[in-house]
Amino acid sequence: MSREDLAAAQGELLRALLAGGSAPSGFDPDALRVEATSLLAKRRRIVSQLDPDTAENLGERFTELFAEYAIVNPRQAGSRFRDDAAAFAEWAVEHGHMTPPRPERRWWRRKG
Amino acid sequence: MGEHLGVGIGWRLEIDLTVERMQGVDFVEVVAENVHRDHLPESLRVLRERGLPVLPHAVSLSLGGAEPLDTARVEHLGAVGELLDAPLVSDHVCFVRAGGLDSGHLMPVPRTRAALDVLVANVNQARSILGRPLALENIAALLRWPDAELTEAQFLTELVERTDCLLLLDVANMWANALNLGEDPVDLLDGLPLERLAYVHVAGGVEIDGVYHDTHAHAVPQGVLDLLAQLCERVRPPGVLLERDDRYPSDAVLADELAAIRAVVAG
Q1: Which of B17, B76, B154, B174 is surrounded by the most beta carbons within 10 Å?
Q2: Whole-model pTM?
Q3: Nearest Cβ partner for A26 among B114, B118, B147
Q4: Which of B141, B117, B214 is nearest to B172 (CA)?
């Protein structure tokens, strides 16, 4: 196996786990499911910590909607979790799951 | 063997004051990606001023990844090591990036000769940039690659010997792999070059639907402390560090966990 073959195999595994790709051969399907669920849960937890307002806003639907978002928006190499949290909030608005948050009111804004 | 460190705890922003005040903390570890390369959080500056070793621990080098090494991340780790005057730095035997995606968590590599060669090449390249000792940590995996050619002990041993690295042995990860993958932790302890041990990680986790998750957010199970005891029967570890990353308990509970670790190490 060359470095290139290994890179392809690693890419195939991540696509299966993160982006709904087909299961690579030789892996235990149950283990793939458990790993995919675990990675999704970690990602969801981090996003909810970075943007608790969106999580709260979506309430009980947060888990389900995040899963829907995540599989079509797997995290790109080099991206940050903050980008992920912002992209999810945007996705939720675009898909009509929440209204855009009101622009932040500044306590120092002058009246009138 | 690495230099003496004692008993430590993972420094996190959320518990910085707890860690500063806690009795019997001999060293700490900080996630390298969470600090700037040119200035330290005040709490770490205080700890360094007291002379406590602060060891940068990286999670994003993807040393087991088959794509070219991201040298900017290695340089960051080296710069943080320099800023902290750390006796060593560390990352994991894993990959996190492939095919343009980021897993967000540590993924196992195949235990094959080809994967080992890639790791060795990446680690050697990283070491040439870092300029200080590098320790490599065994991970907890939820799945295994097909067609393994080496046992975990053989794989890790050859890796650290070919690259002249130290071992950061995580007994909680060994415990997780025993429960989830049926690995034999005693085989691993017996097969590793323990003279290369830098320090040990201990952490808690939780079992959900028959799967043990190494969460670093729950109490340390007795099984993990038992594994630490089995390690201590073979070698006196230079350091043992508790990792707690979420759902922080009271200071007293953390202190009790450190005391339990200290008791095991003291035998």
Answers
A1: B174
A2: 0.95
A3: B147
A4: B214
Cβ(B244)–Cβ(B258) under 8 Å? no
Contact B66 A6 (CB under 8 A): yes
Residue A71 burial class via C-beta count within 10 angstroms: exposed 0-12, middle 13-18, buried 19 and up? middle
Spell out which residues of chain A touch residue B211, defining contact as CB-CB under 8 Å: 34, 38
B95–chain A Cβ distance below 8 A for any pair:
yes
Token couple for A25: 């051969």
For chain A, give every domain's residue range: 3-94
Phi first, then psi: give them for residue B174, nearest 5 degrees.
Answer: -65, -40
For residue B237, CA distances in Å to B10, B11, B201, B219, B234 come to 17, 20, 11, 22, 9
Each residue of B118-154: pLDDT tens digit?
999 999 999 999 999 999 999 999 999 999 999 999 9
Residue with tokens 């993160």: A18
Strand partners, B166: B135
pLDDT in tens, A22-74: 999 999 999 999 999 999 999 999 999 999 999 999 999 999 999 999 999 99
User: A-chain residues within 8 Å CB-CB of B147?
Assistant: 26
